[in-house]
Amino acid sequence: MTSPAEQLLPGTRRALLHRVATAQAEGRTPSLTAAVQRQGQIVWDGSRSCVDGHAPDSDTQFRIGSITKTFTAVMVLRLRDEGLLDLSDPLEKHLPGTGTGDVTLRQLLGHSAGLGAETTAPWWERTPGSLRPTLADVLGGQIAMHPPGSRHHYSNPGYTLLGALVAAVRGASWEEVLRREVLEPLGMHRTTPRPQAPHAGGWAVHPWADALLPEPAEDLGLMAPAGQLWSTTADLLRFAAFLAEGDDRVLCAASVEEMKQPSTPPERGDWNGYYGLGLQVIRRKGRTFIGHTGSLPGFLAALWVSAEDDVAAVVLVNATSGTAIGEVAADLVDIVAEAEPRIPEPWRPLPEIDAELLALTGPWYWATRANVLHLAADRGLELRPVNGQGRGARFTARPDGTWIGLDGYYAGETLRIVRNDDGTVNHLDVGSFVFTREPYEPAAAVPGGVDEAGWRGLGD
């Protein structure tokens, strides 16, 4: 039997090639390279170039701009998981003297710290980092453009601060920490702060003529944590696999999942996307994508992962503008997911059954709302409404005999089994809500009590 992650069907491969060829031609970009991954394996890569015989491949470096921010966020979460800081800590606690007041690490990660979007002039992406040798030079007094935590306002200087935080806590440069703690464990040997051959050159394409202008590739200095990195499609798909499931050598699955949660409510008119902690999340055509886009003069990049489909795509181009890079990458995921839907894993029974938990499964009622409790692996429980209307969640077991909600309305809430004196189950308590075996069961501890006359008809 062949693996579901084997090479794609010819029709799917041609559709992918057509999409990238169209993007390169219509976007008028000197070159474009792309790759698709399914179930952790690269199943397609392709490229187009304006120079015959010189198309880039999966080992050609392009600059990835703000995708760099996701790497910086991973390093901050690692520090948190090691107990060296808390995301609610003010930056000043660990990096004094920045003048940012009570701005927290979580706010910086989610771009809600109220800092300016850019540094002071000159344009930092097109000038050497030596022009901004200190954090004060980066911030330039642009503090509290918005009240911290009040709204999403993308801030490149905010990620400079986070990079400086990583260096200060680790006692090593941002580049060294990145290499040692993220890139090497994930096998991303072609992701580097400075270009290494083979790499593409960055170009600007005239908006009204088919003419080129070379773009400078500056070392961004302190701004590096916001957009310095160069990478390849092959390396970025390794990173995509990590973003899908986590990797305990770098960051556990629970912490990666935390990165995908909204850091601030979406703004009016922007309900199909939000920013997490170093990750962008968009909802498009019924599919959820997590990842990031990036741009620097001469380059555009996009990385998207659809966890439901277990498909990821990366697109890299060497032009300052002209290509809707995020749309192209999402289209590649759509093409594969729709043409060759994910084949589900076979159903298998649990390896062993806990008889006490098995007795808890089946229908439970919150007031008159019917729910079903399912037994999952590792003593996990899943509570779902029968008709799809209502509140549900997955729960994981705690050592003290309770369960904690993992998602949905009851995320973080506690599920307890409340027993009678003889040990039989009276009800389930979920965040103070009483779930009974029958609607308003008289023998259960229903708050407010149950009318002694019981259920009745209209004429009773």
From TrEMBL:
Residues 354-437 form the DUF7586 domain. The keyword Hydrolase applies. It comes from the Bacteria. Keywords: Hydrolase. Residues 20-336 form the Beta-lactamase-related domain. It comes from Streptomyces castrisilvae. Its EC number is 3.1.1.103. This is Serine hydrolase. The keyword Hydrolase applies. InterPro entries: AmpC-like, Beta-lactam-related, Beta-lactam/transpept-like, DUF7586. Pfam families: Beta-lactamase, DUF7586. The lineage of its organism: Bacteria, Bacillati, Actinomycetota, Actinomycetes, Kitasatosporales. Gene3D superfamilies: DD-peptidase/beta-lactamase superfamily. GO terms for molecular function: hydrolase activity.
